[in-house]
Amino acid sequence: MIFSEYPFLRYIFFLILGILIYPAVTHFNALFWVFGLGLSFTIYFLLFLINEKRKVYGFKLGLPFFALVQLVLFGLLMAQRNDIDQNPQHLVNFENSILAYTARVSGQDEPKPKSIANRIHLDEVFTEDGWKSIKGEVLIYHRSQFPLQVGDFILVKGSPQAIQDPTAPFEFDYKNFMRRQKISHQHFIGENFQVLGKVNDQPINSFFIRIRSAMMNRLDSKIQHPQAIQVAKALLLGQKKDLEKEISDAYATAGAMHILAVSGLHVGIIYGFFFLFIKPYRLKKTNRILYLSVIILLI
């Protein structure tokens, strides 16, 4: 492969480089990266204008250098923006005692051996000083006989607990694993909560989650074999959380674990689904570009 024939890969490489560098430079303020991005863009733009005025292509090293510097700095800004430790309104930086809180359910129930897991977005917390706005996600475990639905607005008594660091050397870092999903706390709420109503502030996300949930329920009703249903959910929906360790180990030993991962197979299924209803080559050029762009964004 000739690397120069794929400029997009070069752009992605330097963007990812900025993201990977971020953990080593977290002590720098975001304004530092914004200033660097603005300065590099200004220099790049001035060099571009000089070339335009001279009608020649000069600065053959300067132009690509400052362009790539902008990508690295943009990657740093993206990483910092998603760093929950840098958000003063996030739950990880909240020091007061929490007596209760309100939150929106953002996932679907996942049965566990002794409870049911779900994830919620915090809205407000109740302290001795009253209600305060807050941000963050919490992994909850409840035992309600009524399932929680995406968009349910709930009132929970008690305080979520921070996920602890691993206690033994070389132990799986569950805390870091969950932080990558922007979840920093967990809470075993049992039945100490109340559904206050329903909110729909993310209609598109809720729509696809409901479709996914309906498909999983459909699979549950059609496939009765416990191991077959686990493989079917992993293969068709990418739901691998319910996979038993024996099944996962068997696929890993056979070198076929990639079959259960989200891959080109799943993308092809979605792509084929859209092609089933509308044939893009029958559309006009403008409509065809728009249609295929929407498909790519959805995938």
What brief labels describe this structure?
single chain, 299 residues, alpha+beta, OB fold (Dihydrolipoamide Acetyltransferase, E2P), 3 domains, 9-stranded mixed beta sheet, 9 helices, 9 strands, globular
Structure description:
- The chain has 299 residues and is of the alpha+beta class.
- The protein has three domains: 3-82; 91-198, OB fold (Dihydrolipoamide Acetyltransferase, E2P); 263-299, no CATH class.
- Helices cover 45% and strands 17% of the residues.
- The protein has nine helices and nine strands.
- It has helices at 7-21, 30-54, 62-81, 174-179, 203-222, 226-237, 245-253, 264-277, 285-298, and strands at 100-105, 110-111, 116-127, 130-133, 137-142, 152-157, 161-162, 183-190, 193-198.
- Strands 1, 2, 3, 4, 5, 6, 7, 8 and 9 form a nine-stranded mixed β-sheet that branches.
- A hairpin with a 2-residue loop joins strand 3 and strand 4 (130-133).
- Helix 1 crosses helix 3, helix 2 packs antiparallel against helix 3 and helix 5 (203-222) runs antiparallel to helix 6 (226-237).
- The radius of gyration is 24 Å and the shape is globular.
- It starts with 6 loop residues before the first helix and ends with a helix.
- The model has no long low-confidence stretch (mean pLDDT 82).
Q: Mind describing the biggest β-sheet?
A: 9 strands, mixed
Question: What integer value in Å does the Rg equal?
Answer: 24 Å
Note the gap between the termini.
26 Å
Stated plainly, the CATH topology of the largest domain is called OB fold (Dihydrolipoamide Acetyltransferase, E2P)
Strand content: 15-25%
Given helix and strand content, the structural type is: alpha+beta
**Percentage of helical residues?**
40-55%
Shape: globular
Overall CATH class of the largest domain? Mainly Beta
H-E order: HHHEEEEEEEHEEHHHHH
Q: How many structurally independent domains? A: 3
Oligomer: single chain
Tally of alpha and pi helices: 9
Number of strands: 9
Detail the poorly predicted runs.
none
